[in-house]
Amino acid sequence: MEIDLYWFDQSDIAGSVACFWDRFAPLYRNIRGDRGLILNVGWTVGYIMEWTGDPEQQISLPAGTGQQPWVKESAPLAGSTDERNLAWKQRFATPIIVTRSGYGKWTYANLRHLTDALRSEAAKRGIAGFKVGSLAYAWDDAYGEIAPWAKRHPEAFSTWQFTRDGLKQSGKYFDPAVTLHRDASRLGGLPNGIAEGMPVPDAFAAQWGSLSKAAGLDAMMFRDSFGMPVPYQRAGPDGLLEPSPEAIERRTRATSALIRETKTANPKAIVMMYSNAASALGDWRCNGLDLERIARDGFLDVWVDQTWAGAWNEVGVRHNSFWNNPALGWTYQLAYTLMHAAILAGTRVKHYPLVETFDAWESWDVLHTVPERLRWGIWAYSHASVKTPKGIKVPDGSYISWANQGKRLLSSDDVAFLNTNISEAVIDAHNITEVYGPTLVYARSAAQSQAEHARPDQDAKEWLDEQVGSIIKWPVPVSSVTRIEWLSHVSSDMFLVGAVSHLTAAESRDIHALAQRGVPIALLGSPAGGFDPSLRDLLGLESDDARSSPPSTIKARVSSFGASLALGVPENFPVRQGFTKNTAAPNVKPVYFVADSPTLVLNQSRELHLMTWDPPEFAVEWDTRLLDIWRGSTAPYVLAASAANALLANSGSLHASAIDSNQTVNLMAWRTADGRAHLMFGNLEEGLSDDADLSRKVTIELPVKWGNHPWSSVWTGATFNQQDNSIHVDLEQAHSAQLVSPRRDAGPF
To answer: Can the peptide bond before residue 402 be classed as cis, meaning omega within 30 degrees of 0?
Structure first.
């Protein structure tokens, strides 16, 4: 769990620690594995790099001027978009309800006193081996306040800058690929100071090793922009895509050195790292970070997927933005977490999703505004499953952020909510024996090829997690992932394969073998360079173009066949597309066209159940509703969801009775070792409709082989009815539901 140092009273550390444990002891009991707390010591690397070795040295800490206002947030905003926008303004016009407090005058001796007291009090309460770490992020400022060390050593911070959709974006980050200027000041880990040309990883690690031992810090959490300089979007320090293999190699090597040297400087300490919150496939191709290589180096201990889905998705929870960034919302974070899980599978790195509450610096409060969506998130992300040849693998733990909002701690009721849902979700996840619905496929061979042939204008539309995160806003039940080399060893109702080029012969054979057995497969990516030539006979789409054109808004139209698959899709609609002139094979059925070019097709000839999609591209992502990010239409994603749903229906798998463009409901399904089948539903979306009806509904069809038996609701308040093998679920605004079948020692599932 994460807490800001400023919550603790420097003049009464023992009293603060007792208060902390009075509140949070229930959350940490009965946990198997590491248990700990991460302190935010002023955000930047300054407190590490300024350490002189003198315990009485005062820590440079920000004044807190960048903290945002906190107000009462106890329910989602209701009504039409206009009504909710007005209510948002009124919400932040009310007086601040949380005491604001900057940092006291902390010394490094005080910090050591705090870490010792936290561990000692934990042990007294039966919580042995408690760990206390600290975080740093790579920016040079703490919410607008430039850190003193960053002013002293500006050469340690590089600038990223690019223009996206007409908007200029820029930022600075602590760059492990650069070197430092000489600084003769005596430091705790560098008694002779910093030598001219010293690499950043060497200086940081020397300082961290010394400080962590002196201050009793058991973990280092590399937070925002470490390894991935551009945060919260699919982009990188050299533009939207890295320009060359050499640039990617340089950045990965530098991050690898930072992780390795940090771990080596204090081998007993846990080294943790934070995700970018955006596409996992973009880590490598955009930010230049080969995460799997870092993981296989053996020095990284924990990877945290920063699933702040509600903080990004919910409307009106930030004082300066009504829409925020829904492209980082609930379903997207599920897809990004799944892809990271596949990348990390088979390594020693522990994978944790984040559990968001409220914030110690920002204005949002997801725990109290949309608790049922947060409950969905806890369950969904802890159930993000990797299908391996040895069985199902789920995440290894949870990272809770934050424990405090100003001087306000999470309440006893909040702790009980988190404890109950995290515990029940994790226990259930570790008992999964089968995951139903489509399975994402991660192909490292393809990702490596795209990295090794990187060009600034080369986009194979390989963003599978982003594309799937869009279509599962409708009830296409995706909650599992696998790696392409495991295809012949795992099973699924359907496989979702991204832009795959330069496959091995065995990988190509496995895809063909599955297709010929009638297993549904969806191939997503650009027909221009996005697919291996060995898959040509399966695709149904070809293009003579060498690459897609830059994305622009183009007119699209649905075919009569496509119109029969979905409800509420207009005949013509705009789509933001990197265009290629595609040709459809004679045995496929086009679902929609872009500028008369077939873009989504189904091939259900002979034994085949195939879908090929040349997907659209996102527009601007910040302070914008999702419908505008999608350039004004849900139709491409509704039709893709409908096509996938049709393949599931035709193969007799779990599916929706119909995909309705107006009914965004997420669906997940799994079975546990007690023989129960689980169905989870979430009403998650904002920004796709402007009317006041924020309820959602769906009807799903169960596989005949599941049999006909009564289902029950796990959570109170869920409304559903059952007729034979059909289940209809109604969800109020921001609500979720989980249904379970009767327990069976042996059943047909």
So the answer is: yes
Nearest to 38 by CA among 185, 223, 245, 290: 223
- Residues 6 or more apart whose CB falls under 8 angstroms from that of 520 comprise 438, 493, 494, 495, 609, 610, 611, 644, 647, 648, 650, 651, 653
- Shortest CA distance to 43 belongs to which of 514, 362, 471, 382? 362
Contact of 37 with 404, CB cutoff 8 Å: no
Dist CA 307 CA 328 (whole Å) = 8
CA distances from 76 to 313, 625, 680 (A): 12, 16, 21
Which tokens in the block code for residue 156? 């340690």
Classify residue 381 by burial, with Cβ atoms within 10 Å: 0-12, 13-18, 19+: buried
Phi-psi region of 583 (alpha: psi -120 to 50; beta: other; left: phi over 0): beta
- As given in the structure block, the two tokens for residue 89 are 């303004």
Q: Is the sign of the CA dihedral 586, 590, 594, 595 positive or negative?
A: positive
Number of residues that make up the chain: 749
- Is residue 370 within 8 A of residue 311, CB to CB? The reply is no
Return d(Cα 562, Cα 616) in angstroms, integer: 17
Do the Cβ atoms of 611 and 441 come closer than 8 Å? no
Give yes or no for residue 280 having a pLDDT over 90: yes
The CA distance from 677 to 477, in Å, is: 14
* Arch. (CATH architecture) of 2-382+395-429: Alpha-Beta Barrel (3.20)
Residue 357 CB contacts under 8 Å (≥ 6 apart), including other chains? 365, 366, 367, 400, 401, 402, 403, 410, 414, 418
Name the β-bridge partners of 303.
273, 351
pTM above 0.85, yes or no: yes
And the tokens for 246? 């050499």
Confidence class for position 79, pLDDT limits 50, 70, 90: very high
CATH topology for the 435-653 domain: Rossmann fold (3.40.50)
- pLDDT tens, residue by residue, 539-584: 999 999 988 998 999 999 999 999 999 999 999 999 999 999 999 9
Q: How many CB atoms lie within 10 A of CB 355?
A: 23
Residue found under tokens 């009293």 = 15
Reported in sequence order, the residue ranges of 122-189 that DSSP labels E, i.e. its strands, are 131-136, 141-142, 145-146, 157-164, 167-174, 179-180
Domain boundaries, the chain: 2-382+395-429, 435-653
Q: Which of 496, 493, 466 is nearest to 484 (CA)?
A: 496
pLDDT digits (tens, 9 = 90+) for 128-161: 999 999 999 999 999 999 999 999 999 999 999 9
- 466 token code pair: 């982003």
